[in-house]
Amino acid sequence: MKYIYNLLVTALLGTMLACQEQEIPVFEGNNAIYFDKYYTDAIYPGTESADSTVVSFFFYPDDTKDVKIPLLVNLLGDPLKQDMKFRLKVVDEATTAKEDEYTLDEYYVFKAQPDSVYTTLIQEYIHIQMHKSARMESKEVESVRLVVELVPEGNVELGQLERRKAKIILTTKTIVPDWWDETVEETLLGKYTDKKYKTFLNAIPGAADIDGTMIQEHPDKVIQLVLRFKNWLAKNPTMDENGERMEVVI
Protein backbone atom coordinates (compact mmCIF):
# COMPACT_ATOMS: atom_id res chain seq x y z
CA MET A 1 0.00 0.00 0.00
CA LYS A 2 2.82 2.39 0.82
CA TYR A 3 4.33 1.76 -2.61
CA ILE A 4 1.03 2.58 -4.35
CA TYR A 5 0.64 5.69 -2.17
CA ASN A 6 4.10 6.93 -3.23
CA LEU A 7 3.23 6.35 -6.89
CA LEU A 8 0.03 8.37 -6.54
CA VAL A 9 1.86 11.24 -4.80
CA THR A 10 4.55 11.26 -7.49
CA ALA A 11 1.96 11.27 -10.27
CA LEU A 12 0.02 14.08 -8.61
CA LEU A 13 3.11 16.21 -8.17
CA GLY A 14 4.07 15.63 -11.79
CA THR A 15 0.64 16.75 -12.95
CA MET A 16 0.79 19.90 -10.81
CA LEU A 17 4.24 20.82 -12.14
CA ALA A 18 3.11 20.25 -15.71
CA CYS A 19 0.14 22.56 -15.16
CA GLN A 20 2.40 25.22 -13.65
CA GLU A 21 4.78 24.99 -16.60
CA GLN A 22 1.95 25.46 -19.07
CA GLU A 23 0.92 28.68 -17.32
CA ILE A 24 4.31 30.31 -17.97
CA PRO A 25 4.01 32.58 -21.03
CA VAL A 26 6.43 31.60 -23.79
CA PHE A 27 7.57 33.83 -26.63
CA GLU A 28 6.52 31.78 -29.64
CA GLY A 29 8.40 33.37 -32.50
CA ASN A 30 6.39 36.44 -33.56
CA ASN A 31 8.69 39.43 -33.70
CA ALA A 32 7.95 42.29 -31.30
CA ILE A 33 9.29 45.83 -31.68
CA TYR A 34 9.77 48.43 -28.92
CA PHE A 35 12.00 51.34 -27.93
CA ASP A 36 14.88 50.74 -25.53
CA LYS A 37 13.84 53.62 -23.24
CA TYR A 38 10.64 53.59 -21.24
CA TYR A 39 8.06 56.21 -22.25
CA THR A 40 6.16 55.70 -18.98
CA ASP A 41 7.15 54.05 -15.71
CA ALA A 42 7.22 50.25 -15.90
CA ILE A 43 4.09 48.46 -14.75
CA TYR A 44 4.53 46.58 -11.45
CA PRO A 45 6.57 44.48 -10.72
CA GLY A 46 8.89 46.41 -13.03
CA THR A 47 10.94 49.21 -11.47
CA GLU A 48 12.14 51.12 -14.54
CA SER A 49 11.39 54.85 -14.71
CA ALA A 50 10.14 56.87 -17.66
CA ASP A 51 12.89 58.53 -19.66
CA SER A 52 13.11 61.17 -22.39
CA THR A 53 15.76 62.00 -24.95
CA VAL A 54 16.80 65.60 -24.28
CA VAL A 55 18.93 67.48 -26.81
CA SER A 56 20.01 71.11 -26.52
CA PHE A 57 21.33 73.37 -29.26
CA PHE A 58 23.54 74.77 -26.50
CA PHE A 59 25.95 71.90 -27.12
CA TYR A 60 26.38 72.75 -30.82
CA PRO A 61 28.08 75.62 -32.65
CA ASP A 62 25.89 78.73 -32.74
CA ASP A 63 25.12 78.41 -36.47
CA THR A 64 23.73 74.86 -36.13
CA LYS A 65 20.20 74.62 -37.55
CA ASP A 66 19.61 70.85 -37.67
CA VAL A 67 20.50 67.94 -35.40
CA LYS A 68 20.06 64.20 -35.80
CA ILE A 69 18.70 62.61 -32.66
CA PRO A 70 19.36 58.88 -32.11
CA LEU A 71 16.73 56.51 -30.72
CA LEU A 72 17.55 52.89 -29.90
CA VAL A 73 14.90 50.39 -31.06
CA ASN A 74 14.70 46.71 -30.06
CA LEU A 75 13.36 43.81 -32.10
CA LEU A 76 12.67 40.59 -30.20
CA GLY A 77 11.93 37.25 -31.84
CA ASP A 78 13.04 35.13 -34.76
CA PRO A 79 16.30 36.02 -36.54
CA LEU A 80 15.66 38.18 -39.61
CA LYS A 81 16.17 36.51 -42.97
CA GLN A 82 15.37 39.74 -44.81
CA ASP A 83 15.26 43.45 -44.01
CA MET A 84 12.25 44.52 -41.95
CA LYS A 85 10.70 47.96 -42.38
CA PHE A 86 8.76 49.93 -39.79
CA ARG A 87 7.46 53.46 -39.49
CA LEU A 88 6.94 56.15 -36.88
CA LYS A 89 3.86 58.26 -36.36
CA VAL A 90 3.58 61.48 -34.38
CA VAL A 91 1.41 61.38 -31.27
CA ASP A 92 -0.27 64.73 -31.88
CA GLU A 93 -1.93 65.14 -28.49
CA ALA A 94 1.42 64.80 -26.68
CA THR A 95 3.52 66.83 -29.16
CA THR A 96 4.24 70.57 -29.04
CA ALA A 97 6.73 70.64 -31.94
CA LYS A 98 5.43 72.06 -35.21
CA GLU A 99 5.89 70.34 -38.56
CA ASP A 100 8.83 72.58 -39.53
CA GLU A 101 10.71 71.50 -36.39
CA TYR A 102 11.14 67.81 -37.22
CA THR A 103 11.52 65.41 -40.14
CA LEU A 104 10.64 61.71 -40.02
CA ASP A 105 11.88 59.23 -42.60
CA GLU A 106 9.25 57.49 -44.70
CA TYR A 107 10.32 54.25 -43.04
CA TYR A 108 13.14 52.77 -40.96
CA VAL A 109 14.83 49.38 -41.33
CA PHE A 110 16.09 46.49 -39.24
CA LYS A 111 18.79 44.80 -41.31
CA ALA A 112 18.70 41.07 -42.04
CA GLN A 113 21.24 39.03 -40.09
CA PRO A 114 24.00 36.86 -41.58
CA ASP A 115 23.34 33.12 -41.37
CA SER A 116 26.31 32.82 -39.02
CA VAL A 117 24.61 35.07 -36.45
CA TYR A 118 21.80 33.82 -34.22
CA THR A 119 20.18 36.15 -31.74
CA THR A 120 16.63 36.74 -30.58
CA LEU A 121 17.25 40.43 -29.80
CA ILE A 122 18.36 42.92 -32.44
CA GLN A 123 19.02 46.58 -31.72
CA GLU A 124 19.18 49.41 -34.25
CA TYR A 125 19.73 53.12 -33.84
CA ILE A 126 17.39 55.25 -35.92
CA HIS A 127 17.69 59.01 -36.27
CA ILE A 128 15.11 61.77 -36.28
CA GLN A 129 16.04 65.17 -37.66
CA MET A 130 15.06 68.15 -35.52
CA HIS A 131 15.30 71.75 -36.70
CA LYS A 132 15.83 75.08 -34.99
CA SER A 133 12.78 77.02 -36.11
CA ALA A 134 12.25 80.77 -36.28
CA ARG A 135 10.34 80.73 -33.00
CA MET A 136 13.24 78.96 -31.31
CA GLU A 137 15.73 81.40 -32.85
CA SER A 138 13.72 84.33 -31.51
CA LYS A 139 13.35 82.72 -28.05
CA GLU A 140 9.56 82.71 -28.43
CA VAL A 141 9.85 79.17 -27.11
CA GLU A 142 12.86 77.62 -25.40
CA SER A 143 11.89 73.98 -25.97
CA VAL A 144 9.58 71.77 -27.98
CA ARG A 145 8.44 68.19 -27.45
CA LEU A 146 8.03 65.48 -30.06
CA VAL A 147 6.39 62.16 -29.15
CA VAL A 148 6.49 59.33 -31.69
CA GLU A 149 4.97 55.86 -31.73
CA LEU A 150 6.18 52.73 -33.50
CA VAL A 151 4.14 51.41 -36.41
CA PRO A 152 5.21 47.83 -37.31
CA GLU A 153 4.54 46.29 -40.71
CA GLY A 154 3.97 42.69 -41.75
CA ASN A 155 4.12 39.87 -39.21
CA VAL A 156 5.45 42.07 -36.41
CA GLU A 157 3.78 43.01 -33.15
CA LEU A 158 4.17 45.99 -30.87
CA GLY A 159 6.22 45.04 -27.83
CA GLN A 160 6.06 46.15 -24.21
CA LEU A 161 3.33 48.75 -23.69
CA GLU A 162 5.56 51.17 -21.76
CA ARG A 163 8.10 51.23 -24.59
CA ARG A 164 5.96 51.69 -27.70
CA LYS A 165 6.44 55.46 -27.70
CA ALA A 166 9.44 57.76 -27.37
CA LYS A 167 9.66 61.36 -26.17
CA ILE A 168 12.19 63.84 -27.56
CA ILE A 169 12.72 67.27 -26.03
CA LEU A 170 14.63 69.80 -28.13
CA THR A 171 15.71 72.96 -26.37
CA THR A 172 17.94 76.01 -26.60
CA LYS A 173 18.35 76.09 -22.82
CA THR A 174 21.57 75.54 -20.99
CA ILE A 175 21.84 72.06 -19.52
CA VAL A 176 24.49 71.76 -16.83
CA PRO A 177 26.20 68.39 -17.39
CA ASP A 178 25.90 65.90 -14.55
CA TRP A 179 29.59 65.07 -14.73
CA TRP A 180 30.68 68.64 -13.88
CA ASP A 181 30.57 67.87 -10.18
CA GLU A 182 32.59 69.08 -7.21
CA THR A 183 35.61 66.95 -8.14
CA VAL A 184 35.71 68.32 -11.71
CA GLU A 185 35.30 71.84 -10.33
CA GLU A 186 38.17 71.44 -7.85
CA THR A 187 40.65 69.55 -10.04
CA LEU A 188 39.93 70.28 -13.71
CA LEU A 189 37.68 73.01 -15.05
CA GLY A 190 36.94 75.20 -12.07
CA LYS A 191 33.53 76.68 -11.31
CA TYR A 192 30.86 76.05 -13.92
CA THR A 193 29.49 78.91 -15.99
CA ASP A 194 27.44 78.74 -19.17
CA LYS A 195 29.96 80.84 -21.06
CA LYS A 196 32.92 78.72 -19.94
CA TYR A 197 31.25 75.50 -21.04
CA LYS A 198 30.13 76.98 -24.36
CA THR A 199 33.66 78.30 -25.00
CA PHE A 200 35.12 74.88 -24.12
CA LEU A 201 32.74 73.16 -26.57
CA ASN A 202 33.42 75.60 -29.40
CA ALA A 203 37.19 75.83 -28.91
CA ILE A 204 38.23 72.22 -28.25
CA PRO A 205 37.27 69.37 -30.62
CA GLY A 206 36.13 66.39 -28.58
CA ALA A 207 34.98 68.40 -25.55
CA ALA A 208 31.37 67.45 -26.27
CA ASP A 209 32.32 63.77 -25.86
CA ILE A 210 33.06 64.15 -22.15
CA ASP A 211 30.60 62.32 -19.92
CA GLY A 212 30.61 60.40 -16.68
CA THR A 213 31.82 57.22 -18.37
CA MET A 214 34.80 58.95 -19.97
CA ILE A 215 35.77 60.55 -16.67
CA GLN A 216 35.70 57.17 -14.90
CA GLU A 217 37.23 54.99 -17.60
CA HIS A 218 39.48 57.40 -19.54
CA PRO A 219 40.46 60.24 -17.21
CA ASP A 220 43.66 60.73 -19.22
CA LYS A 221 41.62 61.78 -22.26
CA VAL A 222 39.62 64.24 -20.17
CA ILE A 223 42.81 65.73 -18.74
CA GLN A 224 44.24 66.15 -22.25
CA LEU A 225 41.11 68.00 -23.40
CA VAL A 226 41.17 70.33 -20.40
CA LEU A 227 44.91 71.01 -20.88
CA ARG A 228 44.20 71.97 -24.50
CA PHE A 229 41.53 74.33 -23.24
CA LYS A 230 43.99 75.82 -20.74
CA ASN A 231 46.50 76.43 -23.53
CA TRP A 232 43.77 77.89 -25.73
CA LEU A 233 42.74 80.32 -22.99
CA ALA A 234 46.37 81.37 -22.55
CA LYS A 235 46.51 82.32 -26.23
CA ASN A 236 42.95 83.69 -26.34
CA PRO A 237 42.20 85.58 -23.10
CA THR A 238 38.44 85.45 -22.54
CA MET A 239 36.26 87.20 -20.00
CA ASP A 240 33.76 85.02 -18.14
CA GLU A 241 30.17 85.94 -17.21
CA ASN A 242 31.33 87.37 -13.88
CA GLY A 243 33.65 89.86 -15.62
CA GLU A 244 36.79 87.96 -14.60
CA ARG A 245 39.26 86.25 -16.87
CA MET A 246 38.19 82.72 -17.70
CA GLU A 247 40.47 80.07 -16.17
CA VAL A 248 40.68 76.37 -15.42
CA VAL A 249 42.30 74.95 -12.31
CA ILE A 250 44.29 72.01 -13.71
First-last Cα distance: 86 Å
Total helical elements: 6
Q: Please report the first level of CATH classification, the CATH class of the largest domain.
A: Mainly Beta
Estimated structural class: alpha+beta
Q: Per the principal axes of the C-alpha atoms, what is the gross shape?
A: globular
CATH superfamily of the largest domain: CalX-beta domain
How many structural units, i.e. domains? 2
Averaged pLDDT, please? 87
Question: Explain this structure to me?
Answer:
By secondary structure, this protein is of the alpha+beta class. It folds into two domains: 31-171, Immunoglobulin-like, CATH 2.60.40; 182-235, no CATH class. The chain is built from six helices and ten strands. It has helices at residues 2-23, 134-137, 182-187, 194-203, 212-217, 219-235; strands spanning 31-35, 53-56, 66-76, 84-90, 102-103, 108-110, 121-131, 143-152, 156-158, 165-171. Strands 5-7-3-1-9 form a five-stranded mixed beta sheet, with no helix packed on it. A five-stranded mixed beta sheet has the order 2-10-8-4-6, with no helix packed on it. The protein is globular. The chain starts with a helix and ends in a 15-residue tail after the last helix.
